[in-house]
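Blinded run. Sample ID left blank on purpose so nobody reads anything into the name before looking at the predicted structure. Input follows.
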Amino acid sequence: MTTMAAPAPATLPTTGEYKTGIWSWLTTVDHKRIGILYLVTALFFFVWGGLEAAIIRAQLAGPNMGLVTAQQYNQLFTMHGTTMVFLVIMPLSSAFFNFLIPLQIGARDVAFPRLNAFSYWVFLAGGIVVTLPILFGMAPDGGWFGYAPLTTKAYSSGYNIDYWVLGLQILGVASLAAAFNFITTIINMRAPGMVLMRMPVFTWMSFVVQFLVILAFPVITAALVFLLFDRFFGTNFYTVAAGADPLLWQHLFWVFGHPEVYILILPAFGLVSEVLPTFSRKPLFGYPVIVYSGILIGALGFGVWAHHMFSVGMGPIADSVFSVTTMLIAIPTGVKILNWVSTMWGGQIRFTTSMMFAIALVAMFTVGGISGIMHSSAPADLQQTDSYFVVAHFHYVLVGGAVLGIMAGVYYYFPKLTGRMLDETLGKWHFWTFVIGTNLTFFPMHMSGLYGMPRRIYTYDAGQGWEMYNLLSSIGVIFQAIGMTIFFVNFIRSWKKGAIAGNNPWGAPTLEWAIPSPVPDYNFAHIPVVTSRYPLWDQKAGDLVKSEAETTTGGRLKTAAELGIPMPFPTILPLVAAVFMTAMLCGLLFIHAGNLPLALGIMITCGLGLAFTLIKWLTSPLE
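Blinded prediction complete.
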């Protein structure tokens, strides 16, 4: 088995094709640029959500603290959860979907480039609608789970929940648009020889995630539509006095909410499954089992939602069924842990920053998985539910799992994204401070939860045995903040001044490493023919990519026009459509204000604008 690692050139390759300036970013339909937009936007929201978490932990560092009021605290923990789930981890995964999927399957672009751009602008609009109200003291304040009937107008009469409902509806449109696009891309645009069982694991996990999105998001959409009608039009979907079932929201939300956990974690599993073989210098152990276990996790994920509801009194039969299904879903997850450890066993391990984050995921997600199995027992869950023990479990899964996996991916793919290397010394400082901080923050929460500390309280009295654990958790956030500060310094500095990377600095085996870094707008000058699962290890590079003499001229890469490759036209239409759609939905806020004529005027005007934009979109040439 041979490896290919191109020597680093003195300068970055360029096609001279990309235009610069703000307008080029507003009109781009290039999947790589859209991936960068997702990445930068999600990292901004990461800072925002981190600041919210820091204030929360400062408030809870000691008993009877008065940094924020109860109402401000409600807004903080609601926005922290909403931000980290919908505006950080999901779009960070989307950044990798956009950037990597076409490269890994040997395609020049996604199936629907304009729909891809539309999904990003809708995501940005939804993030603004949810986030901006916090600057005016009107942020959502009903928890990221938004339990009805507490979120109905009778109990939450302000605008706070309105922004949350509208923002999540908008974000759902973005997720669904992207999911249909990526499913079509993976099914129809694979390179010759790229059969399903030769696809990289990241693309496989992304494929599973897209199906989870199109099956789970309609459920939360229905739940939000019911809540929207209750709040704006006086219906009674969640009004208990009118005969509504108070558990309807919980069932609808968690039918979405538990698959959402796998929507968040499976992309990180995919990234780790790319990193571990490269830095272990051996193929992934049990590739088919990794793939099938990911599919099984996706399927079983829809059958465990009610383990979030053991305390509502569903009865022994329902409790038993959901206990068993929750235990079963641990099997394919445990299989992945076994395969990752077996991949490293006997390998020639290189402890790069990316590899260290990947190994940390294996360890920390195991901790979160073990505490999750504890929650599968209904009697145990009755003691732990709504305590800080559950907070610890959830964060070990999403921070110790999703965030660490994404960080492994950032360090691994930064050279392909920018053509430059992230600084490894700073990277290791980032790793140690962040991982130590993460464990210091969340492990003591197991103890404070077992000692009875409930979730979502903004203060507590002394003498209950929680003080030390809360102080440790708050100190841990300082370490996390230091680690992320080091990361951002490294990220910004390396983008312009990092060492030149070359095509394949890691000696990695998959298709994306066979082309220049940064990637030209057309990705592949010649569509490769794939004959194995690890083409750069099992085939000669020349079998995949035609000789450099055919694709370069005058010391630079040829442009798409010079190579005769048709490329999609940049267009502002996806951005305009996203603005009209968002404004149309936000017109509902004027109904809350009692101004029905203005609301109808805004919604009709923006609806017509959206219709005309879509007509223009569908009738204008693509290339």
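Unblinding after everyone has recorded impressions. The chain has 21 helices and two strands.
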